[in-house]
Amino acid sequence: MDCIFCKITSGQIPTNFVAVSEHAVAFNDISPRQPVHVLVVPKQHFNDVADLNNSSPEILADLMALAMKVAGDTSEGSFRLTFNTGKEAGQSVFHAHAHVTSVQPR
Ligand code: DGP
Q1: Which of 12, 53, 93, 100 sits most deeply, having the most CB atoms within 10 A of its CB?
Q2: Confidence of residue 1 (pLDDT cuts 50, 70, 90)
Q3: For residue 82, what are the β-bridge partners?
Q4: pLDDT of residue 45
Q5: Residue 87 confidence (pLDDT)
Q6: How many domains in the chain?
């Protein structure tokens, strides 16, 4: 499968991870829309967060814990945590991921 986030999480595309957990990695978005814009991505491929929730709630819990750590480390406690799910909702990369964004970097 030709998936850009699989290439990033596997190390095939070298990427600076800002945080890592057992099942997920976090890295800066290539085109940030806020001063803080970090993507939190499961190492294993799932098409979107609904697929991830149905297939592996424990990996979703691990990803959420990493997203909350990133939010705490990068913001002053005011942040957004977003999963765009489906093309009509703005999802453009079909490998599940959370956006952590904040206008107030730490
Ligand atoms: P979404 O639209 O919710 O599917 O978000 C996908 C995000 O992924 C979008 O904000 C841009 C980002 N992105 C796409 N390709 C790359 C890449 O190769 N590297 C990084 N760091 N981010 C990427």
Answers
A1: 100
A2: confident
A3: 99
A4: 98
A5: 98
A6: 1
Give the residue numbers spanning the domain of 63.
Answer: 4-102
Radius of gyration from C-alpha coordinates of the chain: 13
> Is-contact 104 75, C-beta < 8 A?
yes
Does the CB atom of residue 31 touch ligand 1 within 6 A?
yes
Is 97 an annotated catalytic residue?
Answer: yes
Q: What is the DSSP letter of 84?
A: -
CATH number where 80 lies? 3.30.428.10
Structure-block tokens of residue 26: 């976090």
CB 102 within 8 A of CB 74: yes
pTM beyond 0.85, yes or no? yes
90 in ligand 1 pocket by Cβ < 6 Å?
Answer: yes
